[in-house]
Design brief:
Elements: H1 10-28, E1 80-81, H2 97-119, H3 125-132, H4 137-165, H5 167-186, H6 191-205, H7 207-219, H8 225-254, H9 257-277, H10 283-298, E2 304-305, H11 313-330, H12 332-361, H13 375-402, H14 413-435, H15 441-469, H16 473-490, H17 495-517, H18 520-534
Parallel strand pairs: 1-2
Helix pairs in contact: 2-7, 2-8, 2-9, 4-5, 4-6, 4-7, 4-11, 4-12, 4-16, 5-6, 5-7, 5-9, 7-8, 8-13, 11-12, 11-16, 12-15, 12-16, 12-17, 12-18, 13-15, 14-15, 14-17, 15-16
């Protein structure tokens, strides 16, 4: 609580409160309503290390603020509840390193399981089709990709709920539902039941991906977030690749239902760890609880949290959903970049859903060995991650030293062009080597290029949106994530039928031509992005 002082100017106090609140939101990586939201230059102190928050983060918005902050004329500075100094132990930024990293370890474990579930099941699809007597290619792809649709729908509820009730309770509730829905998948007695519980499991499993980046921002200052983000991102990065590798041998040995039993067992164990060792980290919720406690102790009903937006829950909920959609449809920058990433992501998951059939049918891999065919994709993703992690920050630091850093440097040709080119090349290699039945190692090399191109394309765009929209970055990433997840869920449905009609060569080449046509998108914004951001006619207030 602020120290009581002399009488203050209400107008000045309102301005100070709003400035403090915007600064707090910006430092922690939250959204905030502010007229100058689209910053053009990158300060050395700007938070530019949040690229994976949305892949890994994709949150809708962690904090919404506006002019409707309760008027200070009805309460004095002494009625504002704040941290008890810069070293307040209740502030998650002041937690011990052991406590912080323990939470990150638990959160990382949970974040590994839910993306793992997206593709762990892929090698078992032929057995599932035989179990339920299904022959439709659409159903074969849908039973895998429908889980990703949950990653688009879940955040619409999870992100606003975290603002209203805190991150910790949302994590725990979603983890419980994830385990329950996964068990229901294992017990499914029809294809319809399995698909229904797959999408519900995806909705619940999106919680750590939606809130994880925000949790890291809660407990680490900007200059310390890179390591935590890297560790937390291992799950979203490797989960979809490790899934088929492990799932192939598991399906061959125990059958497809054991895929879900294993997911439920590990999901439940890691959820229990997070419940025991986790704590609430969301600053507005912690201060609101402190305010409620002090009201009860002092009887002063005028007390209010410094981070209290003053908005009713319904307004917070609506804004959390509406703002990303407004940015997606009204901002040419967010819209085009989101389409670019969404198509690339859709191609990636089309590969995830069809590679089992291709390598079993063309190269006669067993159910166990077919999972190994996904390793090429994993190598490409890891190489892309290492390349960007080293090169991107070097470029930004170099430009910061010159005083010329702008968000468009995140789309530097050294960063964006190799990935944009590698993806269609990898698709063409995979297309015609599988069509001509060239040795299996060659198409796997092609998938490595697909993984490399997909990761670099997605991450350069996400880091660019974070830098370009600063305090509205969470909503920009949310718009990107929703569209990406929709494409990842539905584009694969056309895969097997397309291959039946066009063959593996021309069917995959069609995807390659689409990816090739999108190469100019990041290049265009590299050179024209600043002009678009600063053009009053094109700037949209959100």
């Amino acid at each position: 609580m602020a120290t009581p002082g002399t009488l203050t100017n209400p107008v000045q106090e309102t301005k100070d409160l709003k400035d403090e609140k915007v600064a707090e939101a910006y430092q922690q990586g939250h959204d905030a309503d502010h007229p100058n939201s689209q910053t053009t230059n990158l300060s050395p102190n700007a938070d530019v290390e949040k690229g994976l928050q949305s892949t890994a983060t994709s949150t809708l918005s962690d904090e919404e603020t506006h002019q409707e902050i309760p008027a200070p004329v009805q309460s004095t500075e002494s009625d504002i509840v704040d941290w008890d100094g810069s070293d307040d132990p209740e502030n998650p930024l002041n937690w011990t390193q052991g406590r912080k990293w323990g939470l990150i370890a638990c959160l990382g474990a949970v974040t590994l399981v839910t993306p793992l579930a997206s593709s762990f099941f892929a090698p078992g699809v032929p057995l599932v089709m035989a179990t339920f007597g299904e022959t439709s290619n659409v159903i074969a792809a849908l039973v895998v990709s429908i889980y990703i649709l949950g990653f688009a729908l879940g955040p619409l509820i999870i992100a606003p709920a975290s603002e209203l009730y805190g991150r910790f309770i949302v994590y725990n509730v979603c983890n419980v539902f994830f385990v329950i829905f996964t068990i229901c998948c294992a017990l499914s007695n029809s294809m319809g039941m399995l698909i229904a519980f797959r999408i519900l499991a995806g909705c619940a499993g999106s919680a750590p991906l939606t809130l994880g980046g925000g949790t890291i921002a809660d407990i680490f200052p900007p200059q310390e977030r890179a390591g935590a983000m890297a560790i937390w991102s291992i799950g979203p990065l490797l989960g979809p690749v490790l899934g088929p590798v492990c799932g192939g041998f598991l399906v061959e040995a125990k059958g497809w239902r054991w895929v879900f039993w294993i997911l439920a067992i590990f999901g439940g164990a890691f959820a229990l760890l997070l419940f025991v060792f986790g704590r609430e980290t969301y600053h507005p919720i912690i201060l609101s609880r402190k305010t409620a406690r002090l009201r009860k102790e002092t009887g002063n009903t005028s007390l209010r949290s410094r981070l209290d937006s003053g908005l009713p829950p319904r307004e917070v909920f609506i804004r959390s959903i509406v703002r990303p959609m407004k940015m997606l449809f009204l901002s040419p920058m967010v819209g085009l970049m989101s389409i670019y990433v969404a198509i690339n992501y859709g191609i990636l998951y089309l590969f995830f859903t069809t590679m089992t059939f291709v390598f079993e049918g063309t190269y006669h891999f067993s159910s166990g060995a077919v999972g190994l065919s996904y390793l090429g994709m994993g190598v490409g993703l890891i190489v892309g991650m290492a390349f960007l992690g080293i090169t991107s920050d070097k470029i930004i630091k170099k430009e910061q030293a010159r005083g010329t850093a702008i968000p468009e440097h995140r789309l530097h040709l050294i960063l964006s062009l190799p990935g944009a080119v590698c993806l269609p090349i990898g698709v063409f290699i995979y297309a015609w080597t599988t069509e001509k039945r060239v040795h299996w190692i060659v198409p796997i090399i092609g998938t490595a290029l697909v993984g490399l191109g997909n990761l670099t394309g997605m991450m350069t765009v996400q880091t660019y949106l974070v830098d370009a929209f600063t305090i509205h970055a969470a909503s920009a990433i949310a718009a990107n994530t929703v569209l990406r997840s929709i494409f990842g869920a539905f584009l694969p449905l056309a895969g097997l039928d397309m291959f039946d009609k066009l063959g593996l060569g021309w069917g995959n080449s069609l995807l390659g031509f689409i990816a090739f046509a999108l190469i100019p998108v990041p290049i265009f914004f590299r050179y024209r992005g600043e002009r678009i951001r600063t053009n009053p006619k094109l700037m949209v207030q959100f």
